[in-house]
Amino acid sequence: MIHPHIADALKIPDLVRLTDGMVLVRFESMKIYSALAAVRHLLARGTVRPGQTLVDSSSGIYAYALALACHRYGMRCHIVASTTVDATTRAQLEILGATVEQVRPSRNLKLDQELRVRRVREFLAGRPDAHWMRQYHDDVHYLGYREVADLIAAHVPDRPLTVVGGVGSGASTGGLVEHLRRRDPSVRLVGVQPFGSVTFGSQDHHDPEAIIAGIGSSIVFDNVRHHLYDAIHWMDFTHAMSGTVALLRDHAVFAGLSTGAAYLTATHEARRHPDRLHLVIGADTGHRYVERVHARHAEALDPAALKPVEVGSPEEMAMPWSTMAWNRNPCPAGWKESVA
To answer: Has residue 167 got a pLDDT over 50?
Structure first.
């Protein structure tokens, strides 16, 4: 196939068998699906027009995806970037035509996210013609994952399926599983969270390495649909790093930290549910994590020796790794207000 734009090529994932009970869906950058579909939908609906500026906050993956979507559809792009956005990503964004500003460095990631949202609001106040994409809150970002679900349904073996991936903004795991469950309501969804994330109640646990980029949040994300998740795993940085290193060592897959966390989680889930096929979401490659993760491979723990503590409620969780049956329950009453 000859693609009309590089974004159309980059969005397509590879399906890689890791074990008899585990398949990796490996993306170059998963949120390209989300950004392309969102921009296309907004243009078709008349919410935005060609040439208009689209703005959002991002820790990296979505920024790149939105810049590609804007390049693809003739839009302008402005990114309020986290301090975690690396020089390689920033250079690509700027060459693609995006304007980029990064908030001041902060060791407090809640402050980092709050500063970014505040800056987006300031930008919009001075640019009323710009459109805020709101990747954390606008469910237009669910649309693109129907195509991924169709691909998976067409190619993975016909076995009971469990999807394992970082929760993040909620749109990727949620959008994928919503579409898969239209065919098979028994599809399980296992979400992965870092300690310190408010989304599933771990905000009182401090990980000295801080929130794992892309799968946690220190502010409320409306796009997370808690009722879609069957189980949740909370994991610290060291365990996620160990999963990332193991994935490269055992399967030659060079992936990001969230993929390593999902791989370690899926390894545990596959031991508990050997009858099911576990689909690991690999949201991006490992290039952004070379210094922080891969170069520290000597510090990685042996995955065979690791297992989570099983808890009955978020209040019982303990570092470095806990898991809980969520059973598709809604967001508990008062949670959003308590962390607002």
So the answer is: yes
Which pLDDT belongs to residue 340? 47
Q: How far apart are the first and last CA of the chain?
A: 47
- Indicate the DSSP class of residue 29: B
Residues 113/219, Cβ–Cβ less than 8 Å: yes
Q: Which letter does DSSP use for residue 4 in this model?
A: S
For residue range 283-311, list pLDDT tens digits in order.
999 998 999 999 999 999 999 999 999 99
Which tokens is 323 given? 């898991």
Residue-wise pLDDT tens digits, 112-124: 777 888 899 999 9
Per-chain mean pLDDT for the chain: 93
Please, which contacts does 91-94 make with residues 24 or more away whose CB atoms are closer than 8 Å?
A: 92/64, 92/67, 93/63, 93/64, 93/67
Cβ(135)–Cβ(113) below 8 Å? no
Q: Which residue carries 């990747």 as its tokens?
A: 135
Q: Which residues, listed in sequence order, are joined to residue 76 by a DSSP beta bridge?
A: 53
The rounded percent of the chain whose pLDDT value lies above 90 is: 81
SS3 for 20? coil
Phi, psi of 16 (to 5 degrees): -125, 125
Give the separation between CA 25 and CA 16, rounded to whole angstroms.
6
Beta bridge partners of 78: 55, 99
